[in-house]
Amino acid sequence: MTDAVVLLAHGTPDSLDDLPEYLARVRGGRPPSPELIEEMRHNYAAIGGRSPLTDITRAPAAALSQALDGMPVYVGMRNWRPLIADTLAQAATSGARDLVAVPMAPQYSTLSVAKYRQETERACPAGLRVRFVESWYEHPGLLEAFAEEVRAAQATRGWDRVVFTAHSLPTRVVAEGDPYPDQVAATARGVAARAQLERYEVAYQSAGRTPEPWLGPALEDALRAVAAHGARRVLVAPIGFVCDHTEILFDIDVQAAAAARRLGLELGRTRSLNTSPTFIRALADLVGAAS
Q: Which of 63, 98, 196, 226 has its CA 20 to 30 A from that of 39?
């Protein structure tokens, strides 16, 4: 019987001084270049000096614990503290014996969710059973939570077009059979149906800084295309992310917003789910189904 939950996320540094170590973790131990460190320092400085990812992941963890009648809900990060290994050790020390692990990434990819699972299995203490939720991209509660935010944004402004976004991946990964883009498309269809959107676009954002091809169209290219077709007010709905962090607060609110201004577009964004009650109920249902 499940007696604890862990929410898994990518992780983010606590301060700008932590960037070299953090980026080395993200890069599999390869030291980042001074240019990359400086670029990331600029990006983080533009959103207040740090990403709120860890703090915001703790907020739904607290809300989920309440929804589960006080069951302990932990937070584990793959690339920064609290590291998954330390979190699992803490859970086991506190008496957990049967734990459900939920990645805060609804769509499965070998570059994200699979790595969370690998680290969870590697670091799992003896005597602790972990049930892993691999993907939940079409969970009705998740789709409704995203649709609620689209409807709320539509109620305040007449948007010409809605663009759903998710994190990009190298196209070689997709060629190897990664299901991620199909799952992103399914999430978009489900949210669009619930929000009663007659038309929408899907774009990818936050591509890595490597020369290989990445999934597209990139968000800026999608904005250019809808502008060319007469759109003037565009709503971005990031359905590949469930909470505020750098990819939302910088890549959309700063970088994409600047691109939109150059194109003569008014750019809006749906609120992140964060502690949306509908989202928390979806998480609770996932835990129940995995138990």
A: 226
